[in-house]
Amino acid sequence: GKKSLRQKIADEVKHYYNGFHLLWIDTKVAARMVWRLLHGQVLTRRERRRLLRTCADLFRLVPFLVFVIVPFMEFLLPVFLKLFPEMLPSTFETESKKEEKQKKKLNAKLELAKFLQETIAEMAKRNKADTG
């Protein structure tokens, strides 16, 4: 059924609390990785990607905090998220947004694979025509 206004507000507060909590955890892990880098250790590819994602999230947090700090500006947040969908840090994404991104990436990969298959098939036809 429909949620009451109170329930919607409570869900939003939980969402932002969880997002900030996850960002805090990511920041602590990234700080340890930077410490390891400064002491000459090498990061794995997965660790390097996580470090880069966390740094990008921290830079995205600055404009996001303006919406949280300035009174009544949070009402404009949905408008800005439509204009700039990558504005929110990754820890604030909902599951539906993550699934939507994954579907877009998968569709792009499928289109690229189709293009490559068509190109290879065309090249094979040319080679057969040249040799035949």
Automatic annotation (TrEMBL):
<feature type="domain" description="Letm1 RBD">
    <location>
        <begin position="43"/>
        <end position="128"/>
    </location>
</feature>
<dbReference type="InterPro" id="IPR033122">
    <property type="entry name" value="LETM1-like_RBD"/>
</dbReference>
<dbReference type="GO" id="GO:0005743">
    <property type="term" value="C:mitochondrial inner membrane"/>
</dbReference>
<keyword id="KW-0472">Membrane</keyword>
<keyword id="KW-0999">Mitochondrion inner membrane</keyword>
<dbReference type="Pfam" id="PF07766">
    <property type="entry name" value="LETM1_RBD"/>
</dbReference>
<feature type="transmembrane region" description="Helical">
    <location>
        <begin position="58"/>
        <end position="81"/>
    </location>
</feature>
<keyword id="KW-0812">Transmembrane</keyword>
<dbReference type="GO" id="GO:0043022">
    <property type="term" value="F:ribosome binding"/>
</dbReference>
<keyword id="KW-1133">Transmembrane helix</keyword>
<keyword id="KW-0496">Mitochondrion</keyword>
<dbReference type="GO" id="GO:0030003">
    <property type="term" value="P:intracellular monoatomic cation homeostasis"/>
</dbReference>
<protein>
    <submittedName>
        <fullName>LETM1 protein</fullName>
    </submittedName>
</protein>
<dbReference type="InterPro" id="IPR044202">
    <property type="entry name" value="LETM1/MDM38-like"/>
</dbReference>
